[in-house]
Design goal:
The complex is a heterodimer of chains A (314) and B (357). Chain A is an all-alpha fold. Chain A contains 13 helices and no strands. The radius of gyration of chain A is 20 Å and the shape is globular. The chains are: A mainly alpha (314), B mainly alpha (357). Chain B: Keywords: Cell membrane, Membrane, Transmembrane, Transmembrane helix.
């Protein structure tokens, strides 16, 4: 018991929690934006892979770290555009289209990586984002190491949460976006474009998802591996339902998740001899399912989620 | 003035033509990545065709590859008909495979006429149990089955790894994480001498036939389709929607479990954690390409298997990454989705005056 308390009070534990949560924060915010507009985006898992590969590849080819971030976001927006066109004006099944985008984005990323680097046994490395050292802020006891000695991408993720919250709750665009996910007819009656709003939300959301992937290759690790996304995208989809489509709660969900993951890694070293390591590896997925089951009944779904809307047809 | 309007009913040639055309377009689109990879396109396509039709062995390999895809394709097709989104066939496949080695690798030593059916039934039951969990979570708690089945895939795969290092580990495997082999009399019979194609294929074909008949002609099939087309109306008509959903979940999971049985007891003989290169997920593409028709699943599984086997052989001959096959498979899914839209709507020209009015 003392050990757990000691872990929970340590700076390194909370710093690790936020680090582990970062890709999920990007992914959750991306999924939330898409779903707020009424479009479920199961392309997330593949878009993570595409963001990871494109961001890494851009840096490896010499685009610079922020160049890589930009390329990853553009790649995400591209796959978002595909999903948007298929599900919004064409009104096709959001489930199947999303899975199709995941398969397409994943296989395209893997094929491109293998074609660019046919015979490498150990994946080439890049110089990833380093932990920031902000004068004054980083020196605050406890908070400094936990919050302000993270990489720039973690700072960006936290900034994105604030931005998404602000846009959704304090701007006309946000009101329109929420309306298009609840009652598209009312948006159309206002003379706004339902298609434009939805496709736009899916593209921006997908760009954010890709940043989650880019964090993996450009901040958490320094290379690209096949299968490195490992279900993080699906976890984000579960977390959005858990958070009832509220950005603040989604951030909290991602942080709790990160904390749990950081805790299980530390517990593993404590009780590793008694319990097989796989039990700990399973924990995040089990936790996601539990979170989903607990929240499912109470969740306030965007009312037009999964429902296609066609112009001139009621 | 151009208008898009729905067709009253898509023509018969459309339901057949759309998937075929989608497959052809996806194959043709593969020329772009092939060219970017610097391969001679005509030679590459030639190698792919040779890889499937070049010899009896090549063709039998394609049939071997198509077998698990028929099972997972049927699993997806039945569930999707009821709008039950079982994306967990990959995990259910591993549950079936685990059951097969748990019972077949020496736990009971009985003659083959008893052991083979036992393995098949327990494998299907394991897969069914794997889908019963998300189905219950959906009907009882309203938890979205897409997310739960997707997450269960990861949980089950890690569980397999745990079992392969624990209870199911082959003591003779020198530390390699694999299970003990299925007893010889527990293996599904081979269909051709010196070829790997096995009687799992026959089982898949028979089940596809039964599924087709049941779906089209039975009360069960009618209920299933009613639930899929309009759950609220079905409930109003007195159909037990949750019961129907649970029933199809069991069947879908069982079929996916059989994919695992067929891979272990028909092909590999033992279980490893890399038994399936995503057969569960590819089954979704197979089902969509088949228009969710069980007989169609057989044909589209043969096509997808040809793409995989052909691309593998082309990859060995020309050094182009075999991820090309996954690319073609994913593109055929996107193409058939768009094709489905084209089939349901038609673009008509109307006179401008009418268009304004």
């Amino acid at each position: 018991m003392m050990d757990i308390l000691q872990i929970l009070l340590s700076e390194s534990f909370w710093a690790a929690s936020i680090r582990i949560a970062t890709p999920l924060i990007f992914g959750v915010m991306g999924a939330l934006l898409c779903e707020k507009s009424g479009v479920l985006n199961l392309g997330i898992e593949g878009i993570f892979a595409a963001g990871a590969m494109c961001g890494w590849m851009a840096v490896w080819l010499g685009a610079g770290l922020w160049g890589g971030v930009l390329i990853a976001a553009l790649a995400g927006a591209f796959f978002g555009l595909i999903h948007g066109i298929l599900t919004v004006p064409l009104g096709l099944s959001q489930h199947v289209s999303g899975l199709g985008v995941t398969l397409f984005a994943t296989s395209l990323s893997y094929f491109t990586y293998r074609t660019a680097l046919p015979n490498v046994s150990s994946p080439p490395r890049i110089e990833p984002f380093r932990a920031l050292d902000i004068p004054l802020l980083s020196d605050i006891p406890f908070l400094g190491p936990v919050l302000f000695q993270q990489t720039a991408m973690t700072m960006l993720a936290l900034l994105v949460v604030g931005l998404v919250w602000y846009v959704l709750n304090r701007t006309a665009l946000g009101v329109a976006l929420q309306a298009v996910g609840d009652n598209p007819d009312s948006v159309d009656a206002q003379g706004l474009s339902v298609y434009g709003l939805r496709i736009g939300a899916v593209m921006v959301g997908s760009a954010l998802m890709a940043l989650g992937g880019a964090f993996l290759t450009m901040s958490a690790f320094d290379a690209f591996f096949f299968g490195m996304v490992n279900g993080r995208g699906w976890i984000c989809i579960a977390l959005v339902i858990f958070a009832s489509w509220k950005p603040g709660k989604a951030l909290l969900g991602a942080l709790l998740f990160g904390a749990f993951d950081a805790l299980q890694v530390r517990l593993q070293t404590e009780v590793g001899a008694m319990v097989p390591g796989q039990v700990f590896l399973m924990a995040p997925y089990v936790l996601s399912i539990i979170a989903l089951v607990v929240a499912a009944r109470k969740a306030e779904y965007p009312r037009a989620l999964l429902t296609p809307w066609f112009k001139g047809q009621r | 003035m151009i208008r898009i309007e729905p067709r009253t009913a898509p023509g018969r040639w459309m339901t057949l033509g759309v998937p075929v055309l989608s497959a052809v377009i996806a194959l043709a689109l593969a020329a772009i990545p092939l060219a970017l990879a610097g391969a001679d396109i005509t030679v590459a396509y030639g190698e792919m065709v040779k890889g499937v039709f070049g010899s009896v062995f090549a063709f039998s390999e394609m049939l071997t590859r198509a077998t698990p895809l028929m099972f997972t394709g049927l699993a997806a097709a039945l569930a999707f008909r009821a709008k039950l989104w079982n994306i967990g066939a990959e995990g259910q496949l591993y549950l079936g495979a685990m059951a097969a080695v748990a019972i077949g690798a020496g736990a009971v030593d009985i003659p083959g006429i008893f052991l083979v059916p036992l393995i098949v039934i327990l494998g299907a039951a394991a897969g069914a149990a794997g889908m019963a969990v998300p189905a219950l979570l959906k009907t009882r708690f309203g938890a979205d089955e897409v997310v739960t089945t997707l997450l269960l895939n990861f949980i089950i795969l890690i569980f397999v790894q745990m079992m392969l290092e624990g209870a199911l580990k082959d003591p003779m495997s020198l530390g390699w994480p694999q299970s003990a082999p299925v007893l010889d009399q527990g293996m599904l019979p081979q269909l051709m001498p010196r070829m790997r194609v096995h009687s799992g294929l026959i089982l898949a074909l028979v089940l596809a036939g039964i599924a087709q008949f049941m779906l089209a002609r039975s009360v069960w099939g009618f209920r299933l389709r009613a639930v899929g087309e309009n759950a609220a109306a079905a409930r109003h008509a007195g159909i037990g929607v949750n019961r129907s959903l649970f029933g199809v979940a069991i069947l879908s999971g069982g079929l996916a479990g059989l994919a695992g049985v067929s891979e272990v007891a028909g092909l590999k003989g033992y279980l490893t954690a890399d038994l399936s290169p995503g057969f569960g997920y590819t089954g979704i593409v197979v089902a969509m390409l088949a228009g969710l028709s069980p007989v169609g699943v057989v044909i589209s599984a043969l096509f997808i298997a040809s793409v995989f086997v052909g691309a593998d052989s082309m990859s060995r001959a020309m050094g182009v990454s075999s991820y090309l096959a996954d690319l073609v498979v994913s593109m055929s899914l996107l193409c058939v989705l768009i094709g489905g839209f084209v089939a349901r709507y038609r673009i008509t020209r109307t006179k401008t005056a009418e268009g304004v009015a």
